[in-house]
Design a protein that fits this description.
single chain, alpha+beta, 4 strands, 37% helix, 28% strand, globular, disordered C terminus
């Protein structure tokens, strides 16, 4: 049998030219002086492997920055608004989870 995670890592490893730490440094530069990255992870954006970085600027505004791990380009730098946050909270996966949490007939599978 084939272990899935190592096989997936091997498949994309040669295409990743920029380390996550370097992408975080670039994101902080994008946000400007006195900014901080508070979270960063590998994710999927429209079927592409990307780094998704969350940072706070000098005015304490939250930003979402998407970086291409192949060349380090910033693909998106977006300031979060209340509507952005609500849209993320109301995606179908979150709604399914909320529905399960609010269902009085839910049973434990532990």
């Amino acid at each position: 049998s084939i272990k899935l995670l190592p096989a997936m890592i091997s498949a994309v490893e040669s295409q990743i030219k920029v380390r996550l730490g370097d992408a975080v440094t670039n994101a902080e530069k994008e946000l400007g002086n006195n900014s901080r990255v508070v979270a960063a992870h590998v994710g999927d954006e429209n079927g592409y492997l990307v780094y998704i970085i969350c940072g706070i600027d000098k005015d304490a505004s939250l930003h979402r920055i998407v970086v291409d791990p192949g060349d380090g380009r910033i693909l998106l730098s977006q300031k979060f608004t209340l509507m952005n946050m609500m849209g993320g909270m109301m995606n179908p996966n979150m709604m399914n989870m909320m529905g399960g949490m609010m269902n009085p007939n839910m049973t434990s599978h532990m």
